[in-house]
Design a protein that fits this description.
13% strand, alpha/beta, 318 residues, 8-stranded parallel beta sheet
Length: 318
């Protein structure tokens, strides 16, 4: 039986009513807070107007160049790091996101929080309470694939002593080093009961998705879109209930997919894989979660009822 929110979401999608969509609970499970903030809030606080990305990029290096040219070092102090967190909670609240999974990178603890993980935790929790107290904030531990594993193990140790963290995520260049290198860290994270996630299958092949899930015993994959190239791997992901947290516009603007109309999220969904819709880096790609749902509808990939199923996947319903 459909709830009132189900009916409201379906109606809002069909009418492309983004203001109503913003009132409906949804999740953002793939959000890099450093680039996940609200433009208007940043402009109000800093007087800086961050432009929108107007052309496709072709690599992570090109993205980093764009970020350097258009965002630069505006978040490169402890106070400005705090502002970036604030802007992300403001954005989530404005968009009706009720489940938000974000956190800082372990290397950042020494740069912005005096090497004191308690200060990092208090900063996020204080900002959430101030700007979005009703959001289900799921605190994530971030790892950069570029960092030496021995350094990551040292940096993550104080994080794993705390009980407030919900998940762990590995991101960065998929080709930086073999996924198996991170097994010792993920074993410890699993022992702590953390949800295990990693970025894979954005630039890598379908086999890389299966390898990462097996090596790290992942619960969820960030992106994972290349799995569509292998029916066998899609079936394996569905059988093992591996959720893919997908960012459609990010995939298009980084030239991993030609357009929303041909995005493989449809194929993945049809193979029984739980997929969710997320923002990734809204300061770069410019699309809120609500807008991403409308984009998928306008492209003819899903009807409103199917998008409601995907919305509920993100909320852990069904």
């Amino acid at each position: 039986m459909m709830s009132d929110y189900d009916k409201l979401f379906i109606s809002a999608i069909e009418n492309r009513d983004i203001q109503t969509l913003k009132l409906i609970p949804k999740a953002d499970l793939h959000n890099h807070f450093f680039l996940g903030g609200n433009r208007e809030y940043i402009n109000k606080r800093l007087g800086i107007t961050i432009p929108y990305l107007s052309n496709k990029l072709h690599s992570m290096d090109e993205m980093h160049t764009w970020v350097g040219q258009n965002i630069g070092d505006i978040f490169d102090t402890a106070d400005k790091r705090r502002l970036a967190i604030e802007a992300t909670f403001v954005q989530a609240y404005d968009d009706g996101v009720t489940v938000l999974e974000i956190g800082d990178d372990v290397w950042a603890n020494g740069h912005f929080y005096e090497g004191n993980v308690n200060l990092l935790i208090e900063t996020f929790q204080e900002i959430q309470e101030m700007f979005a107290p009703k959001i289900d904030f799921r605190f994530q531990i971030g790892l950069s694939r570029h960092c030496p594993v021995n350094m990551l193990e040292e940096w993550i140790a104080p994080f794993l002593e705390k009980d407030c963290f919900f998940s762990i995520d590995l991101y960065g260049d998929e080709m930086a080093q073999p996924i198996k290198n991170f097994k010792p860290i993920y074993r410890k994270a699993k022992e702590k009961g953390l949800l295990l996630k990693a970025h894979v299958g954005e630039w890598g092949c379908a086999d890389s998705v299966k390898e990462a899930v097996e090596e790290l015993e992942l619960n969820e994959v960030q992106h994972g879109i290349s799995a569509y190239k292998s029916p066998a791997i899609m079936n394996w992901l569905a059988d093992n209930k591996i959720q893919l947290n997908i960012c459609p516009t990010s995939n298009v603007m980084l030239n991993r997919v030609e357009s929303i109309k041909v995005h493989p999220i449809r194929t993945l969904f049809d193979h029984g894989i739980k997929v969710t819709v997320n923002s990734d880096d809204i300061l770069v790609f410019g699309q809120s979660v609500s807008q991403e749902f409308i984009n998928l509808y306008d492209a003819g990939l899903f009807n409103a009822q199917e998008l409601n199923i995907i919305r509920k996947y993100g909320l852990g319903i069904q």
